[in-house]
Amino acid sequence: GVSTTYTFTHSASIPAGGNITVTDNTNTVAWPTGTFEVYAYTGKANDNNSWNDSAYVKTAGWPEVYIQSGFVEDFESCNDGDSSGFFASGALDLWKVDQISALGGNNGMSTRPNQNVPGGLEEFLYFPRFIGFDTIAGAELRLVHDVDLGAGDVALIEFQGGGTWNTLGFWDPQNVVSTNWYNTGTSSVGDAWAGAQGQMSSSWPLSTWNFSAAPLILRARMKSGTGNSDGWNLDKVEVYIPPQNSAAPIDVTTVEYLPVPDQNNHLKTLIKNTGAKVLDSCLVEYSTDGGTTWSNPEQVVFNPPLVPRKTAWYEFSQDWVNPTSGLYNVCIRTSRPDSKPDNDPSDDQICADITVLDKIVMSVDSSYCNDFDDPSLTPWLTLNAFVKDGLTAWEKGTPAVAPLVSANSGSNAWMTDLDSNYKKRDSSALYTPVFRLDSGQTYTYEFMHAFSTEIYHDGGTVDVTFDGGITWHTVGTNLYGATWFNTSFVTSLDVFKPGWTGLSNGWQQAKLNLAVDTARNAIFRFRFGSDETVNKAGWAIDDFCFYKTSDDTKIFVIGQEELEHNIGVGNIHPNPTSGVAQLPISFQSDADVFITVRNTQGQVLHQRNAHGTSGIQTFTIETSSWAAGMYLVETVTPLGTDVQRLIVE
Fold first, then answer.
1. Strands 508-516, 555-558: parallel, antiparallel or unpaired by DSSP?
2. Residue 406 near residue 399, CB atoms below 8 Å
């Protein structure tokens, strides 16, 4: 280092053979941080014995370190001592900085570097004093160290509190709150490291100092029993300060299960508190062109506030205005958590591809047919019927599971897994384009299909939605003759839903005439469901056509009474959940609903009356305090009762 000399004069006399204490009141000494040496020497005219004119001591500056930006010391900046404020104390002051073989040649702070530690000693290494925790949460003490101790030797970290030294942390064998923090709870000092553990990384949360004005005063304590071991070698000491204020979007989707072209859609995002402090609010905005242009920022106020690592859904108040059909790269970004700078901007943006379905205007195109062999036609979309990012079994290609071993025409069909039996507990859906339907017009819905399923338990149905997939209505019943459903129930399709089940004995035509009483955007889906027992080849679809017709035989009409006063209860999401679940309800007009959540013993955990106005509204269900398991969510509406299962993890 660079030396600094301070000179002053002592003018009083000193008795022969005597000594006195001299204080420098002339200079303001800038004491160094960390290890340093002090030389004191005298000069006097006619001094005949210069050999005793100087004295030397090695000491350390013990600083207060402001912790806002964290602290890291790897002992590489000095080959003798350190520059951060560590200092040794004990029987022999064994702690020293050197190049340590057990640390792969790195510099480290060691109890007697590269030599065995004698027995019967107690040695301490004092850390710098850390201050500034009054605005900090979630700090951690992290060590990279090598522990090689003999019989009866122990190593531990202690903190000063209440005027005494106390063990920091406890043995946590399952690493529930820490990482590799101690490996015994029964040593001579209780919780500690003992034995030959080798090199490892350890961490302990400093939650006791959350928002505390008290300093953090630490020391490493090594107590040797028999000794004769390499001892304790510290490679790195860190006080880690996590991002304090941080919000991150972790998912983006539409409120509508299926975005509909040429009408306003609605986006929502899942926001996570990735900071160490409770999150009350943040700003959020969206882009539908990959981040080139952005919506106006909206302020999200979380109620209740988000504790660290918790999430909440937010629906944008600004509509996604009239997107056309196609693939969109939709991005979400967050900022200003609790009106402060985001301490971790690396997680502030997420992007995902969202498909807006193709649209067929039936007043312009009187028919639409797809044999799934024409590459010029827009591919159909397949999703899980309940969870958009869940599994779906539908695949396009040539069926190859007996007895379904070919397409009806050409080489391609859609099938629930082309080359394997369908999976147990499947809920997969295949979606048509959007059809713009006119009132007063009859349409024919027809396709070829073949199926092999466990009769009455597994099978498929056809549903239609007019609100982008928030609510679905089964198309037709089993009373529409031999060309439509062959059963009034398939138990895997919500128990009471009609559909097709059993064995088709080859390809069959399915055909139904339908109409609506007012102009609507309709999306149809082929929904397949299976239970947990027998699984077979599945369901295959080919040669689909939807066209205008003048045939008025057995027309299935979806009309005013069914829809305009309809209350559609959508699927709870996310499901399973470990926090907040959301229940979307589509209201065609003002209505009251009553929501009750019960556990499997019938106990009521959540109950509320809710009034809905025209449109889609989402009701939150907070589950974070509930035990893991299954719950029944009952929604009573003026038109009937909806019951769904909710899984809490």
1. parallel
2. yes
Per-residue pLDDT tens digits for 222-240: 999 988 899 999 999 999 9
Q: Which domain holds residue 294?
A: 247-356
Q: For residue 567, what pLDDT is reported?
A: 67
The residue to which tokens 């967050």 are assigned: 334
pLDDT in tens, 611-629: 888 777 888 999 999 999 9
Between the CA atoms of 361, 364, 368 and 372, what dihedral angle is there, to the nearest 10 degrees?
-80
CATH number where 212 lies: 2.60.120.260
- Residue 12 domain flag: no
| Cβ–Cβ < 8 Å for 98, 114 | yes
Element (H, E) at 61: strand 54-61
CATH code, domain with 256: 2.60.40.10
Torsion angle of C-alpha atoms 356, 361, 362, 364, degrees rounded to 10: -150
- Domain-embedded: residue 35: no
* Three-state secondary structure string covering 277-302: CCEEEEEEEEECCCCCCCCCCEEEEE
- Distance from C-alpha of 454 to C-alpha of 456, rounded to nearest angstrom: 6
Q: φ and ψ at 163, to 5 degrees?
A: 80, 5
In a shared domain, residues 438 and 531 = yes
Residue 332 contacts residue 320 (beta carbons within 8 Å):
no
Apex 465 CA angle, 464 and 468, nearest 5: 145
What's the token pair of residue 612? Answer: 């809905």
pTM of the model as a whole: 0.72
CA distance 261 to 252: 18
Domain boundary among 356, 377, 405: 356
179 and 200 share a domain? yes
Which strands form 279-287's sheet, in the order they lie side by side? 298-306, 279-287, 326-335, 349-356
The span from the CA of 23 to the CA of 280, in Å, is 56
CA distance 599 to 631: 5
The answer to whether residues 124 and 206 touch, using CB atoms and an 8 Å cutoff, is no
Among 240, 265, 294, the domain-final residue is 240
DSSP string, 386-433: S-TTS---EEEE---BTTB-S-SSSS-EEEESSSSPPPTT-EEEEEEE
Assigned token pair, 207: 């939650």
**CA–CA distance, 526 with 447 (Å, rounded to integer):** 11
Please tell me which residue, 629 or 558, carries the higher pLDDT value: 629
Residue with tokens 């979606």: 431
Do strands 427-437 and 359-361 pair parallel, antiparallel, or not at all (unpaired)? parallel
Structure tokens at 135: 């605005």
- Same domain membership, residue 395 and residue 286: no
